[in-house]
Amino acid sequence: MKHVVSVSLGSSRRDFRVELELLGEPVRLERVGTDGDLRRYARVLEELDGRVDAIGLGGLDLVLRAGRRRYWVRDALRASSRVRRTPVVDGSGLKDAWEPYVVDRFLPERVGYPLRGRRVLQVSSVDRFGMAEAVARAGAEVVYGDFLFALGLPIPLRSLRSVEVLARLLLPVLTRLPIRWLYPTGQRQEQTTPRYPRYFRWAQVVCGDFHFIRRYMPHDLQDKVVLSQTLTRSDVEELRRRGVALLVTVTPEIAGRSPGTNVFQALVVAFARESPERIAPEAYVDWMHRLGFEPRVEWLNPPRDPELRGLYEAHQARRREPWSASRS
Questions:
Q1: Is the pLDDT confidence value at 322 over 80?
Q2: pLDDT at 11
Q3: Which of 15, 60, 210, 238 fits a 20 to 30 Å CA distance from 264?
């Protein structure tokens, strides 16, 4: 049996354990939340070393990226430094390959919703720069919310070039700060304190890390499309109550949740039996398809927007087709 564990700085209330079969082999997936306690986080990582096939880092990135430059996160390096035998990944392999595939191919070809000309709020970009590049490449009008939500400063970034320039100036310093200053950890992942709601109102699509979205989203998300990951059933119901029309999660639903990219990168590494550094970006897309994974697409509310309404009605018609055929 393959055994993959995601160790998270997030709330232990979101923990899960599930067993499934992939490519004819039994697999156990687990999440262990440490409620924002970095010492406990490092201790759990060390205890798992050599006992599981791969470890995913949740709630903590090893590296942030802007353009070709990578910036290593001090807290993540310290926490994972004692793991010597088991591969450790933070999801960046999937973020740089699978998430662009979702934007470039899956949304326009499978959902029928290309991002060209859409107003998109990406709540943070340096933690998933592959998505940021894909959204820009698609021709969307984008606001990158790194300053708005990570730093709480009223500075919307509207180009990847501005993200790269400011990253060169700030990330060498910011990556040395305690992670809790920059990202919701522990019980803060369960709290919502709206911040800069006008950018949510402006956007047609809200994308990026769900913990940022959940932490800062306004009450009214009527007719929005949300592209994210790491959602539980209660998260989905909260988006439904706030009026979200369409939810697309870059990772599939497993046991009632869409686990983070770190879980799926760890799964790929476990099956490929290669070090993460030796797996090419396109190989992650191939492996996700080989393992039978696709993004989840779920309509949460009937939309008012005419274009979304057309997509929704077409989706509802497809759902009715097998029943209609059986009745005829």
A1: no
A2: 87
A3: 238
Would you say 25 and 62 are in contact if contact means Cβ atoms under 8 Å apart?
no
Q: Phi-psi bin for 115: left (phi > 0), alpha (psi -120 to 50), beta?
A: alpha
Tell me how far apart the alpha carbons of residues 57 and 29 are, in angstroms, rounded to a whole number: 13
Task: Count the neighbouring beta carbons within 10 Å of the beta carbon of residue 93.
Answer: 25
Element spanning 37, H or E = none
264-270-271 Cα angle (round to 5): 95
Where are the extended beta strands (E) located within 261-311?
296-299
Q: Which residues pair with 31 in a beta bridge?
A: 6, 16
Euclidean distance between CA atoms 179 and 80, whole angstroms = 14
- Average pLDDT value for residue range 175-204: 84
pLDDT by residue (tens digit) across 84-121? 999 999 999 999 999 999 999 999 999 999 999 999 99
With 90 as the cut, is the pLDDT of residue 315 above it?
A: no
Enumerate the β-bridge partners of residue 120: 142, 205
Q: Which residues of 11-28 are buried (b: 16+ CB within 10 A; e: fewer)?
A: bbebebeeeeebeeeebe
Task: Assess whether pLDDT exceeds 80 at residue 324.
Answer: no
